[in-house]
């Protein structure tokens, strides 16, 4: 690996090849901010020299260092921590996708998407997605760029796995500082910029197989580059496959996770009259008299609700929990566990293609184009059917005439249409997603004159996401209960067609009773599960121009400036199938088709001046106009190379994040389903949460500052320390549905049926009085020893979290060392372990290298669904794993590479967590991951 350090005319390079090196590079401010040593170190003979921080030819992009538009300001002269990993380092890790890098960045707190987090939602957990989440401020607070340009947030965030084939990456630069003054909205916690190789010549091939027990993964890639100094084109392709992984396949997630209440299964049945046999006698099932039970416990309205008579049987995989006044049967709840049948991650196949082309039309004038395409197919296998969420004034009725009804009278059913044990030939409910993403850029760059340069480009970035799920059409479900089930029964919404008779010929009866589900005709799945589809389209149209150069020479130093403007049009639409729109689905909906667009106009400027030798002052500001609000984000930064062995730095800025385009609309924008505890009776059940937009939303803003120092006390040793601080103002938060129903159980935002059962909770986004505030210290150390031909590098990187204040909207509490999943915690809150550390040792000898890495995350208090301030009931233990790898280069020209390694070599399981089994933001349940990679370059 090459690590570029500061110098006054040369580069200082530190060698090493490992996952630990990658982690240090991405997590240590030392890489960008170290002052020069008296004698520069030689580059690792196994690693090519780093890409120069300054490129003077007109064919080089103006954005040389992420976080700046200034062409001729060196990375080492900037004050913001800027962290770089090159392609050689990326290739010598066990990660199978760009998104996997986030697991090795201590400053990154988990990832939305990819692996399921049932407690707070994993983003798009039905497909292969990974987000960046620097400092735990939320995926939307980290701006992700491809070659310095915005990419469509297809999953509510930019999916790192969709950007470009890993083989095409020249380097990844990460800014751990507010960067809204340069890039505008969303760069609150920092910037993650992926830069592709536009000058590659030849053919490069790579293939990797990763063995994960029950869930292998494979990646095949190729890159081909041809051309000369005038015309050059580079094309890269990648295919990636990951097998799905279910909760039942890991001990930490394969446990009984009870679901009860009105939405439970096998289900609950409500009597409206006294049960009776055909002869008028009492109904006795399994030795229990349900007629006398009704006589004794019916309500004043003449109703009584009982659990399924076979609750607790092996077939139902359920537990009967009697109520306090139950005679031992009937009354209470029937708990079952959906846990084993839900996924940890989906099965996914993805295809990526990327091309960079440049053409010099005249000396100093270059046209460029970038085209990228991404396609993913994914399958998520889940519990066979959703719970019945909306029951209306009267739930579905199992009529007395249904031959499977043992009670002899009409009874209402509330539960899951298909039992937890599945339906004949239908063991899982399958969610299928298709994603098509496009990135097209055309532009020009070149010399204007007098040392000034320009870059102008137009970008189209778009995505189409089609999701197919299954839900129960309650009209079809009722028809099957009435004996008109099956795909060939002549029945319409207006009633039975000519010749149709209940339970005769093609018309079938369905029984929701556990004892009968396995006996049902498989064709009845037609009445129990209907396809529902969602089509989402997101588009960005961006035009941008920047000019930069030296404005003046003052006291022998250049005042360098950049000015520019950007126009951005954002469009988003969602279209839903009829069942989702109608509200007749048992669980999903109702939804509304939506279409939104907005225009963003911005201007920006940046200046850099070296006041005296070694002391650089940088100032930047950006103004953005969204139409209904405007905002300005300034930044000032200082970098001072006090001595060749000592560098000091500091920056202060204001960053902002605009509301999502849908969040500002005065309409229903989404419908989710979560577990709700009804404070009126204490029952816990799935209920719909309807989210409405808020046109009054203002952008959330943050004050950001960073101070740090880097020290080179002796040759080959570097030490770095940074103190960072982020404080939100007017943070955009989504109302917590549980907090809404707790505050006003009978209020206008809680929709209840005629029996008083909560059906839906209405929520919206709002600007919190303050917002999350967080601060901490990053410390990194790097020491290299040369023993003969061997090079040994020792590294350590520590991120210490000092504060993580969470604003619930009513109170602010200290979240450090907590899971931050209280009943009223905002969805933006992340688990906040006090310590995150990575340590590594790397050894390179000739054509061989060996490395070992230790990753550690400290424990947190498990506050899942507790009230803020409640006593501690559980902890999520620390996560401590070791990674190892070996690599070899061989062939006459060293054109072949072989890499073997293991991630989590000792097969460490993640610590147990309430409800979800583990926390995806702290560890993963994959276990040992052994991989082999082969590569060739011609």
Key attributes of the depicted protein:
cell outer membrane, membrane, elongated, Beta-barrel_TonB, tonb box, disordered N terminus, Maltoporin, Chain A, mainly beta, 5-stranded mixed β-sheet, 938 residues, 22-stranded antiparallel β-barrel
* Percentage of residues in DSSP E strands: over 45%
Q: How many domain regions?
A: 3
> Residue-averaged pLDDT, rounded?
86
Please report the total strand number as a whole number.
48
**C-alpha geometry:** elongated
Domain TonB-dependent receptor-like beta-barrel: 405-904
Protein name: TonB-dependent receptor
Organism: Sphingomonas liriopis
Pfam families: Plug, TonB_dep_Rec_b-barrel
Short description:
By secondary structure, this protein is mainly beta. The chain has ten helices and 48 strands. A hairpin with a 5-residue loop joins strand 34 and strand 35.
Task: Please give a structural write-up.
- There is one protein chain.
- This protein has 938 residues and is mostly beta strands.
- The protein has 3 domains: 19-249 and 347-379 and 435-467 and 535-659 and 698-731 and 768-937, TonB-dependent receptor, beta-barrel domain (Maltoporin, Chain A, Beta Barrel); 258-337 and 384-427 and 473-528, no CATH class; 660-695 and 733-766, no CATH class.
- The protein is built from 10 helices and 48 strands.
- It has a 22-stranded antiparallel barrel. A 5-stranded mixed beta sheet has the order 1-4-5-2-3.
- A hairpin with a 5-residue loop joins strand 34 (700-711) and strand 35 (717-729).
- The protein is elongated.
- The protein starts with 18 loop residues before the first helix and ends with a strand.
């Amino acid at each position: 690996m090459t690590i570029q350090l500061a110098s006054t005319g040369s580069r200082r390079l530190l060698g090493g090849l490992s996952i630990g090196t990658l982690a240090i590079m991405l997590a240590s401010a030392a890489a960008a901010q170290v002052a020069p040593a008296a004698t520069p170190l030689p580059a690792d003979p196994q690693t090519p020299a780093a890409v120069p921080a300054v490129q003077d030819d007109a064919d080089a992009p103006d954005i040389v260092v992420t976080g700046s538009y200034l062409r001729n300001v060196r990375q080492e002269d900037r004050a913001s921590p800027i962290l770089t990993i090159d392609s050689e380092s990326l290739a010598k890790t066990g990660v199978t996708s760009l998104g996997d890098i986030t697991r090795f960045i201590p400053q990154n707190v988990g990832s939305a998407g990819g692996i399921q987090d049932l407690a707070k939602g994993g983003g798009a957990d039905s497909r292969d997605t990974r987000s960046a989440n620097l400092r735990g401020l939320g995926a939307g607070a980290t701006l992700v760029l491809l070659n310095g340009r915005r990419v469509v947030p297809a999953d509510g965030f930019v999916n790192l796995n969709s950007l470009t084939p890993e083989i095409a990456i020249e380097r990844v630069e990460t800014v751990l500082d507010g960067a809204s003054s340069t890039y505008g909205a969303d760069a609150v916690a920092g910037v993650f910029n992926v830069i592709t190789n536009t000058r590659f010549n030849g053919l490069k091939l790579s293939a990797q197989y990763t063995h994960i027990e029950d869930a292998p993964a494979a990646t095949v890639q190729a890159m081909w580059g041809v051309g000369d100094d005038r015309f050059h084109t580079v094309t890269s392709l990648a295919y990636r496959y990951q097998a799905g992984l279910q909760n039942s396949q890991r001990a930490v997630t394969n446990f009984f996770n009870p679901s009860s209440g009105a939405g439970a299964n096998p289900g609950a049945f409500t009597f409206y009259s006294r049960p009776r046999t055909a002869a008028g006698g009492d109904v006795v099932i399994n030795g229990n008299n349900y007629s006398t039970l009704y006589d004794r416990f019916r309500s004043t309205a003449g109703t009584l609700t009982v659990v399924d008579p076979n609750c607790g049987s092996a077939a139902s995989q359920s537990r009967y929990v009697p109520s306090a006044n139950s005679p031992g049967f009937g009354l209470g709840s029937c708990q079952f566990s959906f846990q084993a049948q839900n996924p940890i991650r989906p099965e996914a196949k993805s295809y990526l293609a990327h091309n960079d082309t440049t053409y010099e039309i005249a000396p100093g004038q270059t046209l460029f184009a970038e085209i990228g395409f991404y396609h993913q197919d994914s399958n998520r296998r889940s519990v066979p059917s959703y719970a019945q969420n909306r029951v209306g004034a009267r739930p579905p009725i199992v009529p007395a005439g249904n031959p499977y009804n043992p009670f002899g009278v009409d009874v209402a059913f509330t539960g899951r249409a298909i039992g937890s044990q599945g339906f004949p030939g239908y063991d899982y409910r399958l969610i299928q997603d298709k994603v098509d993403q496009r990135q097209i850029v055309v532009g020009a760059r070149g010399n204007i004159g007098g040392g000034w340069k320009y870059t102008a480009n137009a970008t189209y970035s778009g995505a189409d996401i089609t999701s197919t799920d299954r839900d129960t059409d309650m009209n079809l479900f009722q028809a099957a209960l009435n004996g008109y089930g099956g795909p060939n029964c002549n029945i319409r919404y207006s009633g039975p067609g000519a010749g149709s008779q209940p339970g005769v010929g093609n018309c079938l009866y369905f029984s929701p009773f556990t004892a009968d589900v396995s006996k049902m005709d498989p064709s009845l799945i037609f009445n129990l599960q209907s396809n529902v589809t969602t089509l989402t389209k997101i588009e960005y149209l961006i035009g941008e121009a920047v000019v930069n150069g030296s404005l003046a020479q003052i006291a022998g130093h250049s005042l360098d400036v950049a000015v520019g403007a950007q126009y951005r049009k954002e469009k988003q639409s969602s279209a839903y199938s009829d069942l989702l729109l109608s509200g007749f689905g048992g669980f999903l909906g109702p939804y509304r088709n939506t279409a939104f667009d907005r225009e963003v106009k911005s201007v920006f400027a940046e200046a850099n001046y070296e006041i005296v030798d070694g002391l650089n002052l940088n100032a930047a500001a950006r103004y953005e106009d969204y139409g209904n609000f405007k905002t300005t984000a300034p930044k000032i930064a200082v970098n001072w190379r006090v001595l060749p062995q000592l560098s000091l730095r500091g920056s202060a800025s204001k960053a902002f994040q605009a509301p999502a385009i849908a969040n500002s609309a005065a309409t229903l924008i989404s419908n989710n389903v979560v577990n709700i505890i009804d404070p009126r009776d204490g029952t816990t059940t799935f209920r719909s949460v309807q989210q409405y937009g808020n046109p009054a939303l203002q952008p959330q803003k943050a004050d950001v500052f960073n101070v740090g120092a880097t020290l080179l006390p002796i040759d080959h040793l570097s030490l770095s320390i940074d103190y960072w601080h982020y404080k939100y103002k007017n943070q955009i938060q989504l109302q917590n549905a549980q907090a809404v129903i707790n505050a006003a159980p009978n209020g206008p935002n809680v929709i209840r049926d005629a029996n008083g059962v909560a059906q839906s909770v209405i929520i919206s986004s709002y600007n919190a009085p303050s917002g999350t505030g967080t601060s901490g210290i990053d410390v990194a150390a790097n020491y290299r020893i040369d023993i003969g031909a061997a090079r040994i590098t020792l590294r350590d990187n520590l991120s210490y979290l000092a504060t993580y204040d969470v604003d619930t909207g009513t109170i602010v509490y200290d979240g450090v060392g907590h899971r931050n999943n209280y009943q009223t915690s905002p969805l933006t809150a992340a688990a906040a372990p006090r310590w995150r550390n990575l340590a590594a040792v790397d050894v390179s000898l000739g054509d061989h290298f060996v490395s070992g890495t230790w990753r550690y995350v400290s424990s947190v208090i498990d506050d899942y669904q507790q009230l803020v301030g409640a006593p501690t009931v559980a902890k999520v233990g620390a996560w401590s794993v070791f990674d190892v790898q070996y690599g070899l280069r061989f062939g006459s020209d060293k054109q072949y590479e072989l890499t073997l390694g293991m991630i989590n070599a000792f097969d460490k399981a993640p610590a147990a967590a309430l409800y979800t089994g583990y926390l995806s933001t702290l560890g993963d349940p994959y276990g040992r991951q052994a991989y082999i990679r082969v590569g060739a370059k011609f």
